[in-house]
Structures are given as structure tokens and as C-alpha cells.
Specification:
This protein is an all-beta fold. It has a single domain, classed as SH3 type barrels. The protein contains no helices and five strands. Strands 4-3-2-1-5 form a five-stranded antiparallel β-sheet, with no helix packed on it. The chain starts with 9 loop residues before the first strand and ends in a 6-residue tail after the last strand.
Length: 66
């Protein structure tokens, strides 16, 4: 998955956490380092770090009523 092109953009992701739970997140990608994506998560209202391997899908965000 080519994450570099999303730096500075707001996107929607489907993410699987380490327990296997899948969630939908609306994020703004800030940086990418060592297979981790640092982003502001509008869903959780804070900075979060996402493991790239656990991002199941990504698309440009279509809504912002989060």
C-alpha cells in the first residue's frame, strides 16, 4: 500500500487492532516511519499511531461530520 502519497491528506481507513477488532477511522496522515503511520484521528479526537500492515483499506475521505 503506497501510504507516502497520503501525507498531509485526510483519509478514511479500515484498521485492525492487535486484538483483531476492525474499526473505521477518519484520519489526517502526518508522517510515516518504520512501517508506522502517525496521524490525527478524528474518530478518537487525538494523535494515534497505526501499523501499516494492519491498515486493511484506505480511501480519500468523503465526509467530515465526525
Amino acid at each position: 500500500m503506497e501510504m507516502q502519497r497520503y501525507i498531509g491528506q485526510r483519509v478514511e481507513i479500515m484498521y485492525m487492532n492487535k486484538q483483531g477488532a476492525i474499526t473505521q477511522r477518519f484520519i489526517e496522515v502526518r508522517s510515516i516511519k518504520n512501517n508506522y503511520v502517525c496521524a490525527y484521528c478524528f474518530t478518537q479526537k487525538g494523535l494515534r499511531v497505526f501499523k501499516q500492515d494492519n491498515i486493511l483499506a484506505i480511501a480519500p475521505a468523503q465526509r467530515w461530520s465526525v
